[in-house]
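One thing: mind reviewing this one?
=====
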Amino acid sequence: MSVIGARLWRIALPLETVYVSSMYLTLQTQRTVIELRTEGGIVGWGETLGNEACFALACAQAKARLGRDPADRRSPPFARSAFDNRDGRNGWAAHAGIDLALWDIAGKRLGLGLCEMIGGAVRREIDLACPLPAAMFDAVVPRTALAAHMADLGNVKRVVDYALGQRARHGFGAFKYKSAGLSAEWDFQAMSELRAALGSEVALRFDPNAAYPVPDAIALCRRMEPLALEFYEDPADGLEGLAAVRARVGRPVATNMALIQPEHLAPAVRRGAVDVVLADIFLWGGIDGWCGIAAAAEAFGLEVAVHGFYETGIATACNLHLAAAHPNLRRASDCGLHQLAADVTVGPRPEIVAGRMALPAGPGLGVALDRDRIERYVLAEAKFGQID
């Protein structure tokens, strides 16, 4: 059996509310959706980042797969350990998108779900963490307007009300607040009011995406210590910055930004930089990469959790399988699927009940693409080989 055709779509999906963080201020998420087809008629679905560079790299990798056995994931030039990556984050992300489609084909070929192929499900209901924007807006605004908005701490109430609404609707027991990195006073007020409104039993995460200088990050995190947050996620930049913060606080420190290559692990351990590795399938080049860092990190006494963003149902399904198969997982997985105004997979969106989403049924990832839906959101499309 070999791959005979590939099709890739670059899409922009609308969000239900404006996403506000230190990195983004947007009302959409851009993704690349991947279809690989075999001569036996099996279709594998993948997904990755949606920027133009990643789309182009994914196209090149998909084209290179034509004529090859889809089970051949580890021989050069496609093995993650041997992948000749000169393209940094986008290179690994493109590799991951193709990898997801190949695993999907393998599961359908064997009649097994992804989690069964990587060790078996130890849970079938996955706890999720709900992302919270730093501020609430009805439309995208300039950063200058965001700063003015945050000068009035009374506006924090809109973030709290949104969190309460998400909890009432979906039963979340974990929330990730996405700091804009513009005002420590605003962030402290937001985290304080969220803790008061949601109660002590809810896990609260603070994530400024390394926007604060180390002294400011230390001061803010120390100030938030009485709030008993679940962890500080990338409160400062780099392993040195995280180590400096961790040495001065009592709550755990997590990262998905500073530990993203195998060679980062040993320095992170030596410096005492982190407690929790938030492993992302796109930063780690796919399933093998994710499982590899999970095993290596745990060998050094670090926790591992699933990192995610505003992904379609394809990558969301993959993350659910990873969480289901990871025996030592004890923290909620990131998930933004419920905050998309539209998705591209077949059928109704999976429900979130009591803060959990069920593992998809069926072989492979357990999802399929709705072609009519995806056509509404296409920015670019590419086809290679035999594809209808």
